[in-house]
Amino acid sequence: MIAPTSEPAPALPAGEPSPAGGWRLLRASVAGTSHGKTGAPCQDASDAARLPSPEGEVLGLACSDGAGSARLSHEGASLACAAVLWEVRDFLERRPLRAATRDTVEGWFLSVHAAVADRALELDAKPRDLACTLLVALIAPDAAVFAQIGDGAIVVDAPDPAGYAPIFWPQSGEYANMTYFATEPEALRQLSAGFIRDRPIQEVALFSDGLQQLALRFEDRSVHAPFFRPMFAQLRRQPSGDAPALDAGLRTFLNSSAVNSRTDDDKTLVLATRRAPTPAPGAEAAATLRISDEADHRFRRKPITRFARSRSGISLKPITAGRS
User: Fold this and answer.
1) Stated pTM of the model
2) Contact between 137 and 204 (Cβ < 8 Å)
3) Segment 78-135, tens digit of pLDDT
4) DSSP line for 222-238
5) 319: which residues sit within 8 A by CB, 6+ positions away?
6) Segments in the chain below pLDDT 70
7) I want to staple 136 with a disulfide (CB 3.0 to 4.6 A). Which of 147, 161, 209, 298 is the partner?
8) Could you give the CA distance from residue 151 to residue 37 in angstroms, rounded to a whole number?
9) Are 182 and 80 in contact (CB under 8 A)?
10) What are the structural domains of the chain?
11) CB count, 10 Å around CB of 196?
């Protein structure tokens, strides 16, 4: 993992070049099965943008999980994703991404906080009614900036046997069943910011906490690579840009019994790659998303894990509440 830091992290070894050209992008949010019982909307959101900058195009990705007990958290999650990328766009019109520091990232998150407060006034609500987490990944040709408040995770390709590594570990608050929100008054105290210089990121995934138990290995704080390999392999074979051919497959996967048996929470997954496609034998070349055998065995051998997380209030102190 990249430790949160207020200054750029030490440069990592240079990665492979990007012979594949532009980014291929796939993202979806699916309501949890618990929401089907209550009629609540999906409270997750994501956003993506290709942003021009002095150093070349920057891929901007954002993912947010609305607080389950906040009545307008779906509004907050959608707004937070759009607002942070808008702020980044404004910054990149004047400066390259590699010029960003922790102070820069804090400014972006303060602007998100202000946008949520303004929207709350318009809705005759309080900011805590729009409470949400926020994860951000910004990737330039040879630099990257990552930021996070709350649970969920950001995963990138890494030069180790697993092939992938988390940027930060999900924030769980004082207790394992708690988290923090980007909309809280003192949210910057929980901001994790990481910087990579001179090492091109080739693949990145952002996901909400509904997928944590499937995508991460909590016993050693690592990535469960079989969760990502088949999806990235198929995404690499798509043309540059969005990947509509895989949309239905991703939504089906996120709403499958194999996933829903592990979590009843909302689920958001954002995938992006600029890596060249690798030859795929037989049926693996089909443009559908399937769970790998290794990943499927992992799903089957463990029962559903429930997490009652705090999703109300504006204090940084954990508050006991029902899960989303």
Assistant:
1) 0.81
2) yes
3) 999 999 999 999 999 999 999 999 999 999 999 999 999 999 999 999 999 999 999 9
4) EE-HHHHHHHHHHHHTS
5) 178, 310, 312, 313
6) 1-21, 173-177, 279-324
7) 147
8) 24
9) yes
10) 24-300 (3.60.40.10)
11) 24
